[in-house]
Amino acid sequence: MRKVVIFSLIFLLLCVMIYAKASTKTEVSRTNEANPFSYHIKALEIIWNHLGYQHVWPQMEFGWRIVVGTLIGILGAAFGSVGGVGGGGIFVPMLILILGFDPKSAVSISKCMVTGAATSAVFFCLKQKHPTLDEPVIDYDLMLLIQPPLMLGISIGVILSVIFADWMVTVLLIILCLVTSIRAFFNASETWKKETKIKEETIKLSESTATCSVEEGYKHLPGSAEEGAAKDTRKTEVSFLGNIYWKEFVLIFLVWLAFVILQIAKNLVASCSVTYWILILSQIPITVGFYLYQAKALYQGKSSGGQHTHWPLHHLFLASICSLLSGIVGGLLGTGSGFVMGPLFLEVGITPQVASATATFGMMYSASLSVVQYYLLNRFPVPYAFFLTLVAAIAAFLGQHLIDKLVNIFKRASLIIFVLAFTIFVSAIALGGVGISSMILKILNNEYMGFENFC
User: Fold this and answer.
1) Strand stretches in 11-106, DSSP E
2) Which of 185, 320, 358, 385 is the most core-located residue (most Cβ within 10 A)?
3) Mean pLDDT for each consecutive 10-residue tract of the chain (455 residues)?
4) How is 217-251 classified by DSSP, letter by letter?
């Protein structure tokens, strides 16, 4: 409760600062009130009238736009952090349609918000234990294995996003989100039925034995690999300093740092020059080196925890291919790795709590890498991005706290999967609507809609 009060006071202080800043810009405010859709008209004129890319950054002033945008941002961050997908599919349409940013600036600010939400959610998860094992809820071994090819895939996807036409990206995005959300919904329904069956059997067993059993939080997911492995003495929350596998944590950070350095260096040289491509290709040996290090450890059964022992070669190969493809899809569609990794973890049988926490942990690194790139390109206004990022961080923390309470109260981890499916479905509708409207305007203006030149 104390944490909630502190976050609320910080949010209130930010609102007061915005209002004070808005009061010094009365002339701009009157102009905007006279034409409430000026931001959107200006954005459309710049985007679809052959004027080239020019950012549209509306004034940061207290009004209905920022109030509605903040509310949508809160909901998007809360639902996105619970499902492990970040909420970018909700942030981008909100930033374009409500606040009036141009699409490229909207994507950039969305990445800032996703980074803030993911960081806040990870901070919450660092203290959480695995639902059945005496281990952290974040699977560090799995994250260290998939992060190198995931980061490489994101870089490849970003290159493809420049080459592919907007309508191609829109179609792929709609298909991916719809298929993923439908599959996640059926997965959640099956999990709900299993949980209901287990609860009914537990009630019957307690009635037949006439004994009192005290339930101490959610113990296991019915049908999962960990079922029956619960430990009654296991603590559900501990100090995060003692709940981190520091070796794996540092290695994951080093992978992220290596890619950040390469991205910064790439932006300092001429595009498509020899040095540029050397920096691009140097990501491959970094990826292979870190991946082989962790793959060898898992193959020999030297994992830090007990979730993975002696991975077979075909599982290691499959993990590398899936993470690489997930990164490519995330970088191409701009959705972030969580949109793919979260559902993928569930498909291979990972417990929902672990899938959400691990996907969010990986998304924190991948989204922050994009933020560094966008900041160097001056793609977003820092004050606006800072405010919305803080809003997303607070909402994500509260969302994690709420879903943790609900799962423990109702003994249903399927709630996490339902939230995941709902968030992806809403993102498909929102992003698809914005993309289709852009396609229609380009068709009406007879604009070129083919492949683009990367250089």
Assistant:
1) none
2) 358
3) 46 43 39 42 41 67 86 85 74 84 81 87 83 82 87 82 74 80 84 84 73 46 42 56 82 89 84 86 91 87 64 82 79 68 75 83 82 79 89 87 82 81 83 80 77 68
4) S----TTSTTTT---TT--SB--GGGS--HHHHHH
